[in-house]
Amino acid sequence: MKIFDAHIHIGGDSKPDPKALIEKMEAGGVYGGGLYSIDPLNPDFTYEERMNSLFSWVEGYEDRLFPFAWIHPHEDNVLEQVKDCAKRGVAGFKFIAGTYSIRDEKAQDVFRLVEELRLPAFFHTGILWEMSENIDDNRPGNWEQFVNYKSLKFCMCHCSYPWYDECLAMYGKFNWMTNHAQKAANGEHTLYANYPWVKDHITEKDGKRIAETPEMYMDTTPGANGLYRDDLLKKLCYLVPDGNRVMFGTDRHAETYQPEVTSYWISEQNRVFDEVHATEEFRNNFYRESFLRFIGK
Ligand SMILES: [Zn+2]
Question: Distances from the Cα of 231 to the Cαs of 124, 200, 216, 278, in angstroms?
Fold first, then answer.
């Protein structure tokens, strides 16, 4: 299977070398993945430099390495940046709420624009090892606000470790709401057909009623390790048996990608999947299809 690693960072302290990265990924059993641009809070790089670096890192491997722009909603001209990223052809965006809340007005303006552009967004969720006080901003419940969006595709990275029970419950809620909107759009019976949320999420397109709802994904990037990882993966297999919208990621850096770490995670995960008899469908979605669906491939 051609595995995708959804979660790779670009550090900025070395020259882009996509060929070397692909070789290391292959050595770790991975075919391609998603790359996040240099941290927008890194004072050594301008926006232009961060974008140039991002696109240099995927050059020549555009069907295997996908560029995600890491954006800070409080930057000057942030809305122009987001539009510019879309013009340059990013696969999507990455956000880490280390020094802001995803509920603040500037952040909301950015997410509304991302939704309008129909591009997906990765969010760090869960405990954040960063030099600021931000625990309340990274608890998964904050992302429940996206029920009010129409079509935003967003991913809860790290399954919000250590609060993955809350993250999984929210995944259930988003699915449940979406199912009811879809049923109502198809004219099937649902008790909720006339509830405001359901009505708000049905539109007419070419004379047909369709449900337009936000889509929540999860990436299982550690975060959860050892005992916690087994627990998380088992709960995922139990609650999301088809693995739909669940992704694999490593949180490695492009310049120092470690094949032995990637293959370690793959074999540890497969040990758990074998133990709980995870289906082929689950594994296909987990390692590959969910990521490709997220980026619209
Ligand atoms: Zn990360």
Answer: 20, 37, 21, 14
Residue 126 Cα to ligand 1 middle (Å): 11
pLDDT at position 130 is 79
The model's confidence at residue 6, banded by pLDDT at 50, 70 and 90, is very high
Cα–Cα distance, 57 to 245 (Å, whole number) = 26
Q: Ligand 1 center to residue 221 CA distance, Å? A: 8
What CATH number has the domain bearing residue 191? 3.20.20
Pair 252, 261: CB distance under 8 Å: yes
DSSP state of 6: E
Distance CA 58, CA 61 (A): 6
In a domain, 43, yes or no: no
Tell me the C-alpha distance between 108 and 137, whole Å.
14
Question: For residue 66, what pLDDT is reported?
Answer: 98
181 CB-side CA count, 13 A:
23
CA of 159 to the centre of ligand 1 (A): 12
Phi, psi of 134 (to 5 degrees): -150, 15
**Owning domain of residue 212:** 69-294
